[in-house]
Every structure is written in C-alpha cells, then in structure tokens.
Amino acid sequence: MRRPLSLASRLTLFFGIAAAIVFPIFGWVISESMERHFEEGDTEELELIADAIEGALSAVHSAGGLAPVEQRFDDILIGHHSASLYIADADARTVYASSAGPDLSGAAQATEAAPEDDPVRRWSDADHSYRVLTRRLRPGPIGDKDYIIAVAVPIDFHLQFLASFQRTLWLMIASSIAVMSLMGWIAVRQGHAPLRDIVARMRRISADKLESVIPPDTVPRELSALAESFNDMLGRVDEAFRRLSHFNADIAHELRTPITNLMTQTQVALSRARTIDEYREILYSNMEEYERMAQMIGDMLFLAQTDNGARKAEASVVDLDAEAHGLFEYYEGWAEERGVTLKLKGTAKVTGDRLMLQRALGNLLSNAIRHTAAGRTVHVKLAATEDGSVRVTVENPGAEIPPEHLPKLFDRFYRVDASRQRSGEGAGLGLAIVKSIVDAHGGKIEVTSADGRTAFQVVLPDQAVPEL
Amino acid sequence: MKILIVEDEAKTAAYLQQGLSEAGFVVDVARNGLDGHHLAMTERYDLIVLDVMLPDIDGWRILKALREAGGKAPVLFLTARDTVNDRVKGLDLGADDYLVKPFAFAELLARVRTLLRRGASPAFETTLAVADLELDLMRRRVTRAGQRIPLTAKEFALLELLIRHRDEVLPRSLIASQVWDMNFDSDTNVIDVAIRRLRAKIDDAFDRKLIQTVRGMGYMLDASGEA
User: Fold this and answer.
1) Which pLDDT score, from 0 to 100, does residue A420 have?
2) Residue A88: its pLDDT value, please?
3) Which of B52, B88, B84, B101 is nearest to A309 (CA)?
4) Which of A78, A459, B191, B203 could be cross-linked to B199 through a Cys-Cys bond (beta carbons 3.0 to 4.6 Å apart)?
5) Domain spans of chain B?
6) Topology of domain B2-118, per CATH?
C-alpha cells in the first residue's frame, strides 16, 4: 500500500486548489466588468454621435446631396476624439466618409445584416481596432432611399489597457495562489508544532522512565484526548512492565534454588568415590528437583499461553457438578487421610473449556483441602445467579489470611507465608492459573477471609466461551 | 520390536536410545532429518519417535513423506512448543501421539508401549490375573489367594490399569489421566495416597508385594516376582 500524503502536503494542496479556483473566478469577474464598463462608455459615445448625425441628416431635405451638412459632421465629430463617420446609401455606395478615419465601408457592409437590437460591434482593420455603431435610416433623408450610417471610435488604447491589466491580474493571481499555498504550509507546520512536541516527549520515554507523561493541559484542546489516552496506555504498559520485571525476578529466584541444590549436590557427590547406592540416592534427589522445575515450566507455559490467547479453548457445555464430583473422587483419599470432608451443594452448567475449568476447580479444591484442619469440611457451592451467570464458591475453614495478602494471592509465585516456599506444594502458580483460566472465560474471581473461613468465589458468565 | 529415533539433540538422542534399548527394544538413531528420512523410508520399523524441530528436514516433512509412501509405522512426535497448532498439524499429518518436552521417560515408555500394542487386537477378556491376584472384570470383583477383597470403583480401575500395564512403570500423570480423567499436574500427592490405600488392601496382608514404587518415575505392578 502506498503511504498516504503527508498532512502538510495535503493541506497545502487543498489551499492551492481553493486559491486556484477562487482567484481566477474573481479575476475573470473583474476583467469582464472592466471590459463591460469600457464597452458601455463607447456605446454611449457612439450613440450620442449617431443621434447627432441623424439629427443633422434630418435637416437635409433636398436632393442637393450631403454637402451642406458635411461641415456639421465635422463639428459633431470634433468633440469626440478620433471618431469617424461613414454614410452609404442602400446600394452600398459611399455617400460620405470621414477623411482621417478608416475605411468603414467593409464594417458597414458586414453589419448591415446584423440584427437591429445589437448595433454596436467590434471591428478591426489591418492596424487598429474600433467599436462601430451602424444604423439604418429608413427612409433616408434624401429621397426615399435607405441610408446606412456607421460611426466608429478606435479602442486600441482600451484594449491595450485591458490586456496589460489582465496580465497584471493573472500574475497577481498566480502569485496569490503560491502565497496561499505557502501560507497553508506554514500554518500546518505551525499547527503541528504541538504534535511534534508530543512526539519529542514520547521519544524521551524509555522503559525505565515510563512515568514521564504528557500533561493534558499543556497541549491544545484538540490534542488533550490524545494525550490522555496516551497517558492511560502508558500507565497500563508501565503496570504490565513492572509486573513482568517482577515476574522475571521471581522466575530467576525460583530457578536459582533448585539449580543451586542440583549443582552443590552433584559437586559434593563427585568430590570423591561413592557407593552405587549413594549415587542412586543422589540421582533420585536430582530427579525430584528436575520434576519440580519441569512442572513449574509447564505451569508457566500454560499461563503464558492462556494469557496471550495461544491456547485454543474448546467450548462445550460443562456440567460443573459432575466435574466437582469427579474432583471429589480424585481428592477423596488424600482429603480423607488429612481428616478433611468434602461437601458439594447445588448444580450448575456453564459453557466453557472443560479441561481448563476442571483444572481451575481442581486447583481451588486442593488449595482449600491443604489449608483445612483435620475434622473440618470444605464446602463447594454451585449456584446460578439472577442474571444467568454461575457462581462457584470454594470455602474452607482455617486460619484467616491477613487482608494485605488477599489482593496478591493470585499473583504468580506469591505465597502468604514466605518461609513455606519449598514445602512441596508447588511453585505458587496454582491460584495464578485459576485466575488466568477465569479471566479467559470472562469471569471474575474474588477471595474473602473472615470469621475463620476463607472463600474463593468465581463468577462465570452463562456463555463463558473463552475468548481465546 | 524395532524403533527409530530421529532427534538432533545429542544428549536427548543418547538417553532415549539407552532407555529404549534397556527396555528391550532395538533402537536406531538418526541425528539429522536427512538420515532420519532415509532410514524411515528404507528400513522397516515398528515405531518412529520423531523430533519435529530438526535443522535440515523438519519432522513434518519426514512424517508426510512416510505416510505418502504408505508407511504405516506408528509415529510419536516430540515437540518443544506446546501449541495447539503443532499438535493438530502433527495429528493431521498422520502422527499417532505426541509428547511435549520436557517429558518424563516413563511417560514416553508408556506411550511407546501403548502405540505398539495398538496394532494387536486385544482379546476380549473377562478376567485378569497376576500371580495369585485375580480380577473379574464383569462382576468387578477382586480376589487374592482366593480371598475376596472389596475395592471402590476407582481402586478397581487403578488396579486394572496397573495389571494391564504389568511390568511397565506408570507415571503419576498417566494414572491421574487414565483413572480419574484428571488431565492437569496436581501439586498434591493424591496418586501416592491412592496407591497407598490400594496397597493396604491388596498387598499389606501378603508376603509378595505386587505394587512397586519406582522412585522418581511412578508405579509398577511387578508380575515377574523378582523384586
């Protein structure tokens, strides 16, 4: 795909096009009206002359020709610079022609056929341009013959003036278009200055300085929404980034302990010869560490895939009480050995990924059993809520979790009791996995701990099709 | 039984070869895709263990070529990436099973045995017996040395699994999946507890202990009586 034109070029282009449309129209109107003005002046003058000539001619009554009024013609024409007169009879014979003027016979002939309502014409001979008025007098002053009079004024001067005016006008228009475009470009550049400023500020943001945000009141109003959403995004990135770096530190820490164990144990074992049984013992011990690490890696992969949607969920209707029953059977022996009873109340069905929901419920259940004292009971309650979603509660009696720990329970590698880190109860990812599965199903998980009971409450929407 | 291992990682290839040889299989190892392709196409194997990430010809192409040439040997593929796409692709191309690295050797062995057994049609059995232990599959009854032992349904299923895979080490994850249909790694010792309870019923009162713990790997029902 081609990269779209830059904003500056776009706006410059638009300004240029607008100017190129508006200014020529403006120029055309001006030059038209000037031409009209000149034409009207000429026409008025020509009509004055023609009227006067006609008046003079009306004084001619005899067949004595035009000689008596020729002096009058000159008088009339003298007031009008360079005007010339031509009179022909109906047979196109020249009756009179001004001595200094051009040969108007051609003009008279040409306009003879012209309609009477448009008697004024432009006419040119070899050297000059004229405006010519022709008028047919019928019947003519002499006899009953028609006469044609043609009056002409030279308009070379007007035409030259107009031409030079138009030249200047078009030059001005062209430069105006250029100036407008340039102004547009400058305006855009100026208008974009806050954007460039924001870009510069964004550029200064680096991973370790995510908090340098753009104050929304330091940018033009149109951009404050951009600044705000950018700040919001930055906040989320910052949060995710912080969690990720914590997570990295946690992983390093979690791996360091077993690796250290493996290394020292193996080094000590190799420092001198041992019996076969001793070697076997060391290998078994190593094996246990490996298994723990492999499980942790598996859990972390599961989390990563669930979180970024790489794990494809298969949605089906999951019978939660059947799943709970299955899990009860699975944990039965273990719970019995610990003296813990399991009780299930209610039924519920939900659309979701069966294996994922099984795992989530299983993790909650094993967590509850582990923290229940002998002789007590873990309750699992299933219920449909009014709005069609499903509520799963796993509740166990036991030591209350201090409130400051509650929000962090679902964090990866988080343990309430830091000293119980490696007492063989997994890597501290169990509840993180539960949360990630619930999130993938669009549900919510909450934990409360009060009055000697700890309860995990999962709410799954009815159509909890995992958004993966 | 002859098995081909196609694996470019030297250590993995070496331990797979050792482990499978010691389990009684004849094992060939190809350390790159080209050799693997050649061996798979020219030799007859009962099973092929195929790593899909190979430097030259990847496992998918070997699998595809084998199936196109009509090769029917079951293929178990190994992948480091546990993504649905990989699994679906492998199974679509005609693989029979897969394992995600890292995996337990016992798990691999159990799957290899299952795949090799698949060809042979199992006789319809109504009873299973090991030593003096007898399972009546129809009536779900267990007797040892003629003495009736009451078992819960899950205990019966667990014992049946162990007997059907007698002399094979069954990893805990496989037991959880086969008996309880639990397909996630639990961080509890649920399986150990279940085995302990089963033992209390079928082994404790007798001198010969049938259920053996294989440390670090899983459990095994010892039918040979050597232990």
Assistant:
1) 47
2) 78
3) B84
4) B203
5) 2-118, 127-221
6) Rossmann fold (3.40.50)
Q: Identify any residues that bridge with B136 across adjacent strands, giving them in sequence order.
A: B127, B141
Q: Smallest Cα–Cα separation from A422: which of A258, A307, A267, A233?
A: A258
Specify whether the CB–CB gap between B83 and B55 falls below 8 A.
no
By CA distance, what is B186's nearest residue in A?
A: A363
Q: Which of A63-77, A255-269, A369-383, B164-178 has the lowest mean pLDDT?
A: A63-77
The domain defined by A7-164 folds into Beta-Lactamase (3.30.450)
Instruction: State the alpha helices, DSSP H only, in B121-167.
Output: 153-164
Which one of B180, B194, B217 has the shortest CB-CB distance to A326? Answer: B180
Cβ within 8 Å, pair A366-B181: no
Q: Which residues of B touch A301 (CB under 8 A)?
A: 82
Q: What is the CATH number of domain B127-221?
A: 1.10.10.10
Chain A residues with beta carbon closer than 8 angstroms to that of B176:
330
- Report pLDDT for A312: 59
Instruction: Give A331 to chain B, closest Cα distance, Å.
Output: 6
Please give the average per-residue pLDDT across A94-104, as a whole number: 74
Q: How many other C-beta atoms lie within 10 A of the C-beta of residue A199? A: 11
Cβ <8 Å between B190 and A330: yes
What residues contact B53, with CB distance under 8 A and at least 6 apart?
A: B8, B59, B79, B80
Q: What is the pTM of this model?
A: 0.62
Residue A251 has pLDDT above 90, yes or no: no
Q: Is the pLDDT of residue A113 over 60?
A: no
> At the fourth CATH level, which superfamily is domain A315-460?
Histidine kinase-like ATPase, C-terminal domain (3.30.565.10)
User: Does residue A139 have a cis bond before it (omega within 30 degrees)?
Assistant: yes
How many Å apart are CA A401 and CA A206, to the nearest integer? 38
Spatial distance between the Cα atoms of A81 and A18, rounded to a whole number of angstroms: 45
Q: Which CATH number fits the domain A221-307, given the four candidates 1.10.287, 2.40.10, 3.40.50, 1.10.390?
A: 1.10.287
pLDDT, tens digit, for every residue of A119-133?
777 877 777 888 888
